[in-house]
Amino acid sequence: MEIDDERAMFIANEIGAAVIELIANGMEVSRQNIVDLSVTRSTKGF
After folding, report:
1. Segment 6-23, tens digit of pLDDT
2. 3-state secondary structure 11-32
3. Domain with 25 in it
């Protein structure tokens, strides 16, 4: 169960960081923009 909690916390932190970045860049906060940002970050090594 501890692993599930850690994974959930990691995912929540990633989503939170993406939302903050979208807002800072004046972009709409949407599921698709969060996914797009996540893909961009993973391909650039962030």
Report:
1. 999 999 999 999 999 999
2. HHHHHHHHHHHHHHCCCCCCHH
3. 1-44
